[in-house]
Amino acid sequence: MKLASLKHGRDGRLVVVSDDLAWYADAGHICATLQGALDDWERVAPDLAVLATDLRNEAIPRERFHEHDAAAPLPRAHQWLDGSAYVNHVALVRQARGAEMPESFWHDPLMYQGGSDGFLGPRDAIPLADESWGCDLEGEVVVVTGDVPPGATRDEALAAIRLVGLTNDVSLRHLIPAELAKGFGFVQSKPASAFSPVFVTPDALGDWWRDGKLHRRLMVDLNGAPFGRADAGVDMTFDFGTLVAHAAKTRALGAGTIVGSGTVSNRDADGGPGRPVAEGGVGYSCLAELRTVEAIRSGEPLTPFLKKGDTVRIWVEDDRHHSVFGAIEQVVG
Amino acid sequence: MKLASLKHGRDGRLVVVSDDLAWYADAGHICATLQGALDDWERVAPDLAVLATDLRNEAIPRERFHEHDAAAPLPRAHQWLDGSAYVNHVALVRQARGAEMPESFWHDPLMYQGGSDGFLGPRDAIPLADESWGCDLEGEVVVVTGDVPPGATRDEALAAIRLVGLTNDVSLRHLIPAELAKGFGFVQSKPASAFSPVFVTPDALGDWWRDGKLHRRLMVDLNGAPFGRADAGVDMTFDFGTLVAHAAKTRALGAGTIVGSGTVSNRDADGGPGRPVAEGGVGYSCLAELRTVEAIRSGEPLTPFLKKGDTVRIWVEDDRHHSVFGAIEQVVG
Fold first, then answer.
1. A112 in contact with B at a CB cutoff of 8 Å?
2. Angle between the B87-97 and B287-298 helix axes, to the nearest 10 degrees?
3. Where does the Fumarylacetoacetase N-terminal domain lie (chains A, B) (predicted)?
């Protein structure tokens, strides 16, 4: 089952979307919003599933689904927690800085609490008031949970995952060092993230969803050229069950909590830093990683951060190159 | 005007409360929830104000208001940002650790993004699975904003403040050092916060609300004994206008954003660390500060963190010793 929120008010209008993303059926008679559905999932999800089946069978009125009409599936949420599960990425960034990475980073997930009061839709521009802030994309996989009890195990956490999707976790790189030095995490350096047009139930992903990971390549294009093709199922040190359980160690997580993987990142085939797609590698899911590799190779980063007018595209394909979650496609403006 | 949410579902049931906190009138015919009212404040607030006047004049049906029936005014929110505006408190804690405080801390607010997916009501127990986590109270003032545009000035931020209230920002002190060392802020070390039974519009606070500060003493009792009597209007280095503008530097803040002051803390009359209430001082709004003072005086902290069965009470009084926001009164359980 694929769910989306068409732009409408602050919380969108819940629709069920066909598997090929071509059509939608209004779900308003079942539940007005996706948050409402997550709040009452046991009761609502079966009805939404029936609607999805009817849509597949063309048994109900349907409308054309246009990705640019979609808000973020949760246009605002009550919680957004982002991990750094691809520790390879963290190790690389540290290496470029000449900073040692604590060994504990391989066992204890890095995670920050992000702002969830207003997310960008998949085709919304990335607002950027000042290019000197060093605006970067971060291509990630996310999950949305139901209620998670405090102290949940990894298995309990996995069972609480309701939906899977993608995010562009926009980062202002030049504001990060000063904020992180204060120790209190990100506030100014993490403006609103954008999300894929649809979120998908794990069962609808079949074999691509296993071991708490999405086993597909995360496609990232920058200004129309292939930039990242890393496999989200590879080099993910902490699966989503582990990330959700980490977040729930001392407190319950409310239904509709979004948990992110952190920037997807694969090692190169030889175990070293990834190479650009143009050089036969799987590339990168953020500019910071490319700049890090450049710094390791040539002493300094060469690729600039995002400028006004740059375009970012993030998506995942099935075996026939059809989009699974729809595409995040944003212009910096 | 004083607003509360009676316990009901995930978002409570909006009521208007009398100035003396004795009575309430249901506001459901105007707006079902406080979040809904904040989403549409320009339209809804005048109607709520009329209801408050009618309640004052006993012109409408009213019911007894019991603080233990209240949820947090926003039982869940879309954003909770907590500052550390009483820099004196930060300086003290650092001094006890032997760590120097950067001079920038006097100009650049410390602020973290907290979890907002589920808050505790004012009389809810503080869930504590493990006493070794070092559970602490933190008595703070909070404001709730309307929509704040990105890059808002301090004056614009001040004008966007809709409500003022109190919080007990529960902290797990022994989990903090390891999380802060990672640089990504608090996740496990900040479980759900509790809020005062009512939030109050700034105009209803009269002269107590000025310069973006609440000029009243924050009363904190621990196990029935006076623990803190610090004036929230004193030694607050960053006022709420500055804190909100800090949060909005690179992004909009959605209506219903809660911004906290951080632990209220006053210097002693001689400029040194505050003394306990029993020694004629204004005491403390968290155990960590008392433990810090103990460490400075005698080489080690003496007072333990919260244990199961301990009670915490946080409130503010008017000149006749009547409660302004109602009391947060929690047992550790």
1. yes
2. 40
3. 1-76
Reported as a single tens digit per residue, the pLDDT across A232-286 is 999 999 999 999 999 999 999 999 999 999 999 999 888 888 899 999 999 999 9
* Subunit contact B185:A189, Cβ cutoff 8 A: no
Q: Residues of chain A whose pLDDT is less than 50?
A: none
Counting one residue from chain A and one from chain B, the pairs whose CB atoms sit within 8 A come to 137
Taking contacts as CB-CB distances below 8 angstroms, the residues of chain A near B129 are 150-151, 250
Overall pTM > 0.95: yes
ipTM metric: 0.96
C-alpha distance from A15 to closest chain B C-alpha (Å)? 22
Where in the sequence of chain B do the CATH 3.90.850.10 domains occur? Answer: 80-332
Of A116, A185, A256, the CB nearest to B79: A116
> Largest Cα–Cα distance of chain B, in whole Å?
61
Which of B116, B250, B253, B332 to substitute to test the interface with A, most A CBs within 10 Å?
Answer: B250
User: For A158, phi and psi rounded to 5 degrees?
Assistant: -60, -40
Please tell me which residue of chain B has the smallest CA distance to A36.
B10
The CATH class given to the A80-332 domain equals alpha beta
* B157 Cβ contact list (under 8 Å, min separation 6): B145, B148, B240, B241, B242, B243, B244, B245, B248
